[in-house]
Hints:
The chain folds into 2 domains: 2-222, 3-Layer(aba) Sandwich (Rossmann fold), CATH 3.40.50; 228-496, Ribokinase (UDP-N-acetylmuramoyl-L-alanine:D-glutamate ligase, 3-Layer(aba) Sandwich). Helices cover 41% and strands 15% of the residues. It has 17 helices and 18 strands. The strands form 3 sheets. It has a 9-stranded mixed beta sheet with strand order 12-11-10-13-14-15-16-17-18, with helices on both faces. β16 (397-400) and β17 (405-408) form a beta hairpin. α7 packs across α17 (481-496) and α11 crosses α13 (383-394). The two termini are 13 Å apart. Its cofactor is K(+); Mg(2+).
Amino acid sequence: MLHSWDAGAVRAAEEPLLAAGEPLMARASFALATRVASLLRETRGRAGGSRVVLLVGSGHNGGDALHAGALLARRGVAVSAVLTTERVHAEGLAALRAAHGHVLAVDHDDQAVPDAVAAALATADVVLDGLLGLGGRGGVRGPAARLVAHVAQARPRPVVVAVDLPSGVGVDDGTRNGVVLDADLTVTFGAYKPALLLPPAAAAAGRVELVDIGLAPAGPPAVARLEAHDVAALWPVPAPDAHKYVRGVLGVVTGSARYPGAAVLTVAGAVRAGVGMVRYIGSAGPQVLAAHPEVVVGDGRVQAWVVGSGVAPDDDEQRRRVRDALVHAVGHDEPVVVDAGALDLLPDAVPAHVVLTPHAGELAALLTARGEHVARADVEAAPLAHARRAHDLTGATVLLKGGTTVVAGPHGATYAQADGPSWLATAGAGDVLAGVVGALLAGRAADAVADPTLPAALAAAAALVHGRAAGHANPGGPVTAGDVADALPAVVAGVLRA
Ligand SMILES: NC(=O)C1=CN([C@@H]2O[C@H](COP(=O)(O)OP(=O)(O)OC[C@H]3O[C@@H](n4cnc5c(N)ncnc54)[C@H](O)[C@@H]3O)[C@@H](O)[C@H]2O)[C@@H](O)CC1
Ligand SMILES: [K+]
């Protein structure tokens, strides 16, 4: 599992080490210089003779860049530091000067990037972004912002290495504040920060390399990301003496006359993820049976539910069945996945084993219906904050679908899963995901009710398997929702071997 800690927890972990005189910045900058040198060797064959430009802000992040620059200069790299403020890390600057690095500055009043700076950037093999790190508040401003825009527009674009974090991201909430310099590599110190896992900021980080500088952040992580072996530990694997009822029966109230395919796809997700049995309730029975003869159509005892995928707003009969299922599920402590056309039927307050699976537009509508006035773009700009808000307002576990899927549950349980290719953004893929989440909740229904943080972990596990299934179905190319479902058994088997 990847864990990340917010700025406060990282600083709290640093404090006693700094008080004890541990050379944290020296460790960080040495590791940074080493990574940059190996990057230069990869791209140019050797580090010596190459050109590196440091973008330097006022804090320790700039200090890291300056110290790393000094080390690189001593290895024969031509290093130029661009100071974006009058006040920069004094020791770092002295080290760079002692190593014969060039020092350039951008003027606060200057509206353009000075020629000497533009010239250095034009020939840079690597640009080190040391503008803002853990202490960044809001977006990059002033001359630094002009520099970032200049580098971002340069063609060819230099290789960018972010120091600790890409400057301009919201460290704890994963937002992008104005101009952000997209990095090819981020060298981060001591611990992952939430912005390195959360959308949309994480996309700016490129590849992330974590450097151990001796920090041990305490307390629960802010945001986690499951890996295959974590999912293996969560997945309900049948015992040797299992029969279909103990393995979990899933009630599926999805699809409608207008969207029968959604019923077929939710069922496909559930059966291919390994649920013991599916009971389908709704008008798409014939289509479901044609595709999945193992399904039982009609009411009966279940351990968990999936409701709402492809339920058209004007299908009164299916909406009534959804409402009945929701009332039954909440009243009988049965976990339930609430998707798409069921989201507006959610009761005001529900337990955490109710798992909502909206996309950004649906989450905006759900929050707006609760008096928040949120647009889809607001959700996309700050997915975690909005998923958490929906959890706080409803009590439900919230899985927000997107290129990176964010899950927010009780007691701060938060996951960000980035397991699927962009090809997964295809019609019906969300229906399959709802079925996978349902299969996991049915297989671990009693546990999911007993431990309110477990549904979030199960939802994240479903997102991992669903994302990987898309990559497995057709590596590097397009997939249909059906292809994703078809790939699930092999992906589950692979995960269980991890
Ligand atoms: N504390 C430590 O011992 C270590 C810190 N390290 C580095 O130190 C960084 C944190 O250092 P700082 O706390 O100095 O934080 P930053 O380097 O992020 O700089 C914060 C400073 O920038 C200014 N600032 C904040 N937001 C701004 C904005 N939007 N535009 C312009 N200026 C802004 C503020 O005046 C603040 O003083 C980490 O990210 C990491 O790179 C590493 O060297 C490892 C050890
Ligand atoms: K930075």
